[in-house]
Each structure stands twice: as C-alpha cells, then as structure tokens.
Amino acid sequence: MMFCPKCGSILAPKEGGKKGKLGCVRCNYVSKEKQEVKLQETVEKPKKIEIIDENPMKAYPKTKEECPKCSNREAYFWTVQTRAGDEAETRFFECTKCRHRWREYS
Ligand SMILES: [Zn+2]
Ligand SMILES: [Zn+2]
Asked: What is the pTM of this model?
C-alpha cells in the first residue's frame, strides 16, 4: 500500500494511464514509477575502538618496591594524575617478575 506524498490518500492504479502507474484517489498526484525503489542507505556503524592495553612498561623506570604478591623487590613505576590538579599523582607499580599491578595510596 502506497500513499500520496501530497495529501496522504491511498494511491491506486491509474485507469487509462500507462500500466503500473499509481495515482492518488483524491488529488492529481501520479507516481512517476511503478514502484519507488528506495535506495537503501548503507549506514555504517562506527567501528568499536578497541582499547588495547599495551604494556607501557618498557619506557618506565624500575624502582625498589616489594611486590605484594610474589615479594619480588623490583617493580616498574609510573604516575597518573587522577584529577585535574587538585590531587597528588598516584603512583602505580608493576612487578617485574609476576606482572602484578598495584597502586600506591598516598
Ligand atoms: Zn493526493
Ligand atoms: Zn610480583
């Protein structure tokens, strides 16, 4: 069922006209084509950006910090600013041996 884009009435096959054409029962609207071929819009969904947890440790220095998990006495460390300026930086550690991560609460 198709409807007139002008007045919303039902479109019916036009008598006497070229076959296949549809015309509005109320106004003089005649559809141009047999069937309006709607081009399907190919809306591409935005690809999910995978956040790869890269190991940034290579660039970070080591420090003498005891791992709470395996008691290894060496860990990489880096600092993260948790909030905009009003808090001190939080230190994070990663055990060089077992890769356990923890943070230092100051
Ligand atoms: Zn109409
Ligand atoms: Zn460890």
From this structure: 0.42
User: For the stretch 9-41, what's the b/e string if a residue is b when 16 or more beta carbons lie within 10 angstroms of its beta carbon?
Assistant: eebeeeeeeeeeebbbeeeeeebeeeeeeeeee
List, for residues 50-92, the tens digit of each pLDDT value. Answer: 655 555 556 788 999 999 999 999 999 988 876 666 777 788 9
Ligand 1 centroid from CA 10, angstroms: 8
Active site residue 53: no
- With tokens 């905009």, the residue in question is 84
**Residue labelled with tokens 């007045």:** 7
CATH number for the region 56-104 comes to 2.20.25.10
